[in-house]
Amino acid sequence: MALVKIPSEQKTLREAAEVTAFLATHGIEYERWTPAHPVSEGAGAEALLAAYAHEIDTLKARGGYVTADVIDVKPDTPNLDMMLAKFSREHWHDEDEVRFIIEGRGLFHIHPATGPVFAIEVEAGDLIRVPRGTHHWFDLCVDRRIRAIRLFQDTSGWTPHYTGSGVDQGFEPICFGPSYLARG
Ligand SMILES: [Fe+2]
Fold this sequence. Notes:
Elements (H helix, E strand, L loop, with lengths): L2 E4 L4 E3 L2 H10 L3 E4 L12 H7 L1 H11 L3 E7 L6 H6 L5 E2 L4 E15 L6 E6 L2 E5 L4 E6 L5 E7 L8 E2 L15 H5 L2
Antiparallel strand pairs: 1-2, 1-7, 3-8, 4-10, 5-11, 6-7, 6-8, 6-9, 6-10
The protein binds fe (ii) ion.
């Protein structure tokens, strides 16, 4: 279950209905889609996409997405820091950022056109759609693990455009969910 934190208001939203409603006010769609198909840790992207073919087709039909792929990173992924650095600065895309989290977790920060910056911590089972043009950045949590299905309308539209605002530097990339705390 995703959690939302609004640092400037010292507020954390933990209830599903509250999180969904808050995100909707910023045009962000959020749903729980419990990962229903067990896919082994070592299974490749093709196996994962095949297992979730029905869910992917449902999303494609709903949002006009044409392709899907898998992002699969672990602490020992080569060049992980370089990869993460691309997304940890404030940016936007010319198309929606759609993620269905299969394993692990991550932290989106959203800088809306109106209202304060807020963080969304996503975990397995979370489906999120951040609309095109939304200013945001992304970090992994301390376990540096995420496996997610991504959907694209046009992969060329997904290049990050950096705002260069530096706003991201005012927020700690620290996850705050109970599973994180339990790990110490
Ligand atoms: Fe992004």
